[in-house]
Design goal:
mainly beta; seven-stranded antiparallel beta sheet; four-stranded antiparallel beta sheet; 2 helices; globular; binds succinic acid; binds fe (ii) ion
């Protein structure tokens, strides 16, 4: 049963076919997730990557897991090595994996085995243009996306870039899971508004878990 509009977190909201928002689901895990982000970024620092079109992304990124996502002027890749350090991407912290698997299951996706976690850091003004997550070899597995810190407007469309967009505010601890029919739906993040958050200060962080 969907527990709509319950007054105690977490609660679920359907977003699209195959897509669910688990509101505040990661709230109780926020401190351990932030500690994980600090550990990971001490080994593989946040950096603003350059797209194949030559555009420097406003979002700063790093990864953990057995592979990580990166872009440069040559294209998008999942690779074992962080191109900046020349070393393996840091291991995915156990708490990250456990949360991602629990969220996938609660949204209806059993046996989720993410091997990559992309960590996005948004400063005020940073945005992520409308895109599809389609660099994974298998599209069977869902995407699990965890939001921490400052709120942001998430756009969620359809299979075509110009399909109508839903706009939902993602707040600290919210988790979005999309797969099945909506696995390739276009999505993005509108420019982050300035603010202060007790856990993340002037930033929003987002973790996206993928089975590549
Ligand atoms: C993404 O699409 O990879 C990230 C979305 C978000 O930051 O919420
Ligand atoms: Fe994405």
């Amino acid at each position: 049963m969907l527990d709509l509009f319950a007054d105690t977190p977490p609660w679920q909201e359907p977003l699209a076919p195959g897509a669910t928002i688990l509101r505040r689901r990661a709230l109780a895990n926020a401190d351990i997730l932030m500690a994980g982000i600090r550990d990971v970024s001490a080994q593989s620092p946040f950096r603003q990557m350059v797209t194949p079109g030559g555009y420097t992304m406003s979002v700063a990124m790093t990864n953990c897991g057995s592979v990580g996502w990166a872009t440069d002027i040559h294209g998008y890749v999942y690779a074992r090595l962080d191109p900046q350090t020349g070393r393996n991407w840091p291991e995915m912290p156990a708490a990250f994996l456990a949360l991602a698997q629990a969220c996938a299951q609660e949204a209806g996706y059993e046996h989720f085995q993410p091997d990559a976690c992309l960590i996005n850091r948004y400063a005020p003004g940073a945005k992520l243009s409308l895109h599809q997550d389609k660099d994974e070899k298998t599209l069977q597995a869902p995407i699990v996306s965890v939001s921490l810190g400052l709120p942001a407007v998430f756009q969620f469309g359809g299979l075509k870039r110009n399909d109508p967009l839903q706009r939902v505010l993602l707040e600290h601890g919210d988790v979005v899971v999309w797969g099945g029919e909506s696995r390739l739906f276009y999505h993005g993040i509108q420019p982050l508004k300035e603010g202060h958050h007790p856990t993340t200060d002037a930033f929003r962080y987002n973790l996206t878990f993928r089975h590549t």
